[in-house]
Structure formats: structure tokens, C-alpha cells
Amino acid sequence: MEKCRDPSLPGISVLLLATVAILYAPPPDLVWSKCYGGAGDDWAYLGEQTADGGFIVAGRYYTVGSMGDAYIIKTDADGDTLWTKTYGGYNEDRVFDVKQAFDGGYIAVGYKREWHNQVWLLKLDENGDTAWTKTYGGESGDDATDFVCQTADSGFILSGGIRSYGAGNADVWLLKTDRNGDTLWTKTYGGSELDYGYDVFQKPDGGYVLIAGTESFGAGQGDAWLLNTDANGDTLWTKLYGHSGNEWAYTFRETPDNGYIIAGWTNSMGAGDYDFWLVKTDSLGTVEWERTHGGPNEDCCSSIDLTWDGEYILTGWTYSYGAGADDFWLVKCDASGNYVWSQTYGGSSTDFPYYVCTTADSGYFMCGGTGSFGDEWDAWLLKTGPDLGVSEHKELDILANLLVHPNPFSTLTHISVEVDSRQKSLASIHIFDITGRLVKSFDPLLYAPSPMQLMWDGTDDALNKLPNGVYVLRLAADEHSETKKLLLIR
Fold first, then answer.
1. Is there a single domain that holds both residue 366 and residue 433?
2. What is the mean pLDDT of residues 399-410?
3. From the CB of residue 282, how many other CB atoms can be counted at a distance below 10 Å?
4. Which helix (H) or strand (E) holds 209?
5. Same domain for 268 and 236?
6. What InterPro entries is this protein classified in (predicted)?
7. How far apart are CA 456 and CA 45, in angstroms?
8. Is the pLDDT of residue 450 over 50?
9. CB 12 within 8 A of CB 368
10. % the chain with pLDDT above 70
């Protein structure tokens, strides 16, 4: 059994697991799980739900005569394959993250290996065909990025690690491009030891916040490192989180109170060898609370997302519980980080999850790799049904397809409304805050043969920016209504 370990370039290389405590509430049912890949060792890393309700996932794929190719999987809402694509040459190539771009295509990031690793950014159309690719990095070391985010100017921000230049063994690397992938600026952060950047988001002011792991600074062997920068990548402030042992995190989310929730693992505290570790901070990165969850063995978190009821969903893999050597572990925690429920998924061999997200139907989507099912190692995607108590209200039979994407959102979300042709009266659309106060009204809509498109930028009717939080979109006609929850995170 391979332990949670420190990362080394290239790519995501911290082995991350998950947690458990006493069962307090039932988890949602598993709706489907699917394996993808060929006869070699294939993996899924990161992805997201797409505007059509399906999923896009980045991974790796081994073919005969190759050291491994970048792999993108596109599915429908039921996990059935719409298309898969591989990218790369003879040498080892990887993509770790993929997201839907503003134009409906996709942006993926990873590394491409020639004599050494270079950061690789791929722009794809809606069918996965290559629009352009770019490589970045120096000539003397192995460089990689694991996360990408499209920015308000339609460019991209990449986060990872670089050995080619910087202060130490490897440094946190932040790279900003324009919409065509041309470099606007790069920044490195770090000390004399290993430092590596992970999840990154753009702030409403145009700056960036990212989570990193550091061995150069902090209290122990490894620590989590939160960095806040301006729009040019210049540091505004940084915070370290850790204790006397080893802590690491590569996933975080901004919370509705403008703070942050950081998820990773620790061996300084908790019940076992490694335990699931949650750190909640305020908007300046000051710790508000910490929580650990786990059993007697190694349990570490790999991914976190916010849920529709303002709580947290996490995944990772566990050696303390489950059916095999390591299993997927899905864990629900309340807004204070306390355990709510958990569920394992896996077989008699090793199964590793990398990613979880909340889906539009209040369920959860996970992806990773499985040695228990499929051929050799396969990419494994799983989807649960709605989480009990947080599913959305829907009464309106004659109104079809109220869709919102992206959701959660930070700057702009697209609302698609398709009203059934039997509906002859006007349909009203309003947005309310969590207290029930009306904050935004749209002009009434009459039914149309094709979906009507609206956009909301998170402002009220007076064009004031609204605070982070959960909002409710309500579509009503006659005596019928349909609602959707919206999560605004600037």
C-alpha cells in the first residue's frame, strides 16, 4: 500500500485519501458508475459538469508503442460516452484539468514531455478537436501545471510548479495568458525546498488566490500555503497552515462569507496515520476552525466542493474503511466541518478518487482511477442521485428545461429558459436571496419554439454587486413554478 506522500513534479503526485466517522444520515444513492479506457493503465483526474448536463474529464491513456497520452472523456448526463480523444506523441503526455470555456469548447492543461517536461495548454472545440496548443517552461527542468481557470478577459490562469527557474527545488508557478494562449506574465513563489501550486481562482477585483504546498516554510515537514495576489500576480498576502508533522492541501473553495475552506491531509493530529483535514479561514486567510476526520489508517482528502445547502462535500481515498486496499470515500460535512455522512465505493483492489463536484440536481459527481473494475487500471466516473433534503423544488410540468451554467459562478451565469408550447401566458423570472428578499427581476417571457437566453452578473436591480451566497431563481406561469438554486462565489 502506497502512503500519502509529498508531491514531486511532474503533475499531481500527492496520494490523497478520505475520511469517516459515525454514520448520522443516509448518503444519496449511486445512480451510475462507468469505466473508461483500454488495455493499459488509464486514469481520470479532474473535470466538471458541462452546460448540457453531461461531464468532461481529463486523464491519461496508454496505447501500444506510447508512454501514455493525454485523454479527454466527454459524456452525457448518464455517463454514456459522447466522445473521447487522445492527444500527444511518442513520449509521455498528460492533462490533469479540463474546463468548459466561455465559447462552449474546452481548455485543458498538463505537461508534454520531450527531453524534459513542459507545461502544455490545449484549446479544444466542442467536439474535442484541437484549436491550438501552447507549451511553456524552461530548458533545464521538469515543469508542470495541474489547474487552469478561464479569466474575465477570456484568457487563462495556470497554476503548478517549475524547476527550470526560481528559488529552490521547485517553486509555485503562476502563468497568465491571453485568449490565444500567449503569455502575458509568469510569477514564481517559494524558498529553497519543494513548493508546488494547485487550485487557483480569479477574484472579483481581477487578482488571484491559489492553494499551494510548501516544504520551504511553515511549522513542519510540509504545510498548506494560501497565496493572494493582485491582477499582475504580485503578492498581497500569504498564510501558512500546518503543525509539527506533515500537512498538505491542493484543493479549496471560496465560501459564501468571503472566506475559504481548505481540504487536505494531516499526520499531526486526528485519529490515524493520516487524516482528512479541513481548515476554514476568513477573507484574510486567518484560521476560524480546523477539523479532522478519519480512522486508524491512512485517510486523506483529494477534493472539496460546496453543496446547495451551504455545507461541504469531499472525496478522497481511505485505507481505514471499505472493501479493498483503498476505496473512494465520499464525505458530507456541515458548514462547521462536522461529519454528516459518508459512503465508500470500490472493489477488492485499489481505487483512487481525485475529484468531486456538486451537480445541478443536488447530487455529486466523482472521478479517479480503479484497479478493481475494467481492464488493468481504468478511468472511473461515478454519479449519485440528489442529496436528501437539498434537492430542488419543481412543480411546473408545462415549463421545460430551466438550465443555468456555470453554477456555481463568479462573474456571469447563463440562464436558458424553454417554455412548453402549451403555455400561452407570460412566464416571470425573479431571483431571491436566502432570506426570501427579491433582488433581481427579468422582463416577462412568452413561450417560444426555442430556448430563450438570459444572463445574470450577480447584481441586483439597482446594479449593486450582491454578496456571495445561495440565491434562488424562480420561474412562474399561471399557478405553476420551478426553482433553481444559484451559488454566487466571487
1. no
2. 75
3. 13
4. strand 208-214
5. yes
6. Quinoprotein_ADH-like_sf, Secre_tail
7. 31
8. no
9. no
10. 86
